[in-house]
Request: fold
Amino acid sequence: MKELTTISTSNSHGGVQGVYSHKSDVCNCDMTFAVFLPPQAEHKPCPVLWYLSGLTCSHANVMEKGEYRQAAAEHGIIIICPDTSPRGKDVPDDEGNWQFGSGAGFYLDATIEPWKKNYQMYSYIARELPELISANFNADMQRQSIFGHSMGGHGALTIALKNPECYKSCSAFAPIVQPSTADWSSSPLRRYLGENETAWREYDACHLIEDGNLFSPVLVDQGSGDDFLDNGLRPWLLEEVCNDKDIELTVRMQKDYDHSYFFISTFMAEHITWHARHLNNL
Amino acid sequence: MKELTTISTSNSHGGVQGVYSHKSDVCNCDMTFAVFLPPQAEHKPCPVLWYLSGLTCSHANVMEKGEYRQAAAEHGIIIICPDTSPRGKDVPDDEGNWQFGSGAGFYLDATIEPWKKNYQMYSYIARELPELISANFNADMQRQSIFGHSMGGHGALTIALKNPECYKSCSAFAPIVQPSTADWSSSPLRRYLGENETAWREYDACHLIEDGNLFSPVLVDQGSGDDFLDNGLRPWLLEEVCNDKDIELTVRMQKDYDHSYFFISTFMAEHITWHARHLNNL
Reply:
């Protein structure tokens, strides 16, 4: 069993909100993550819902502001909230740049020096952390779903599209659906993956779909008052590329909602209830 | 109409979470507070529920971590979250002391120099801020209730006991019920109010009740795993002093819950639903 350090646990909504750290082999540093165990996990393996956070966030932001515990306890779902990048004094960073380095791992495996030694968030989320969860918690790993916000919505979409057999459903709040061309993500993709834009397609939901990847069902909520809508998020690009494909996509524009946790927390319970339907449909 | 500066507004749970500041006459400084307007406030005056926060907090902590918006929107209740002390470069502080000064106003009117010029949180919460709310929001000030956490539970209890005609109901999460004798509050009371302990009784729920003040109904939730239970909170002192009095008090011990927002948010919806019953009983 992989070793886990418990940083804190607190009773909440009938379950337990914990924070844990471990030595990540793929990221070559200590990584911290949050796990909410619903009360049902005391007695039986529970399905797992992954929440991937956005730029600048750690595991803590959604744990504090996301309002996910009530619905997760009700439906008996384990919620995992990983960090958004490797961190630490031995991990290279681009200090002061909130779109690259610490807090901005973009859920990809970097191939360019000096980032590639640590910035392996794709393998971390899709491979290493699930093994650790499986070994340490009462989780039914045959029932996993994934969701996220902004950069984390990009992460959820691309990881689901690349591993459709692993997840029952995928949803996102205000996701970056085409990071290759979005204002805040094309530069990070270049620095992590190099000049050859073919390599970027592996980490771009719209391009993955163009290249034949499929995943269903997908639910997207997007605030119409989101400042990043036109230059960063553009959910219509996802709708366009899904039009001719066999993908069940629902995009809901939410009038006047912004990009904040006030938006995320509003629709959190609906997303969890939607995932619960797919997770419990075995 | 008193002047109000809007710092931010975000749609949330069908209503609007706002943050505002104003020049406080009683605290002699700019004060910041949060207001959640439920969707019903667009069409009719809504009742007001005051949430008073604990030591070290500003208006922001419960706004981010308290999970109050869903229930407030459902019941059509305005939630006001004031700051816990005056702040600013012209406000005296005891830097590094989390139990006194900034973030630790203890909801009293200081009488000792140099604190008395600004530390007037009792008058601010009970008198000045309600006038500002009444003038600027679609609030039915005939229907107010009050609750809070820890130091804020002390604030809610003492303000309700001193102004029973103003509030329909009072509740608290892990309140300091007898600050005169609690580890973390007897020293601040001495510094704000002086050596004469008679003056402290005005800001001590147990002593106010002993001295004949009455308020009903009161609901208290307390975690049994709270590190501050035995030396700071001691809800049994409130139960004892209420035994012979005409006060409807319910104290619920919540097994293994701690002092954090993970505890507060768990029982937040129940408290709001309980207040809604009393606020809507006109």
